[in-house]
Amino acid sequence: MDQVELVKAYPAQIAQSLLEDSIDIGLVPVAVIPLLKDPHYISAYCIGAEQAVASVAIFSEVPMDQIEKVYLDHQSRTSVQLARLMMELYWEKEVEWLEADPDNINKIGGTTAGVIIGDRALVAQNKFAYVYDLASAWHKYTGLPFVFATWVANKPIPEDFIKQFDAANAYGLNHLDEVIAGIGQEEKVYDLKKYYTQNISYEFTEAKKQGLSLFLKLLSRP
Question: Taking residues 103-124, what's their average pLDDT?
Answer without folding.
Answer: 91
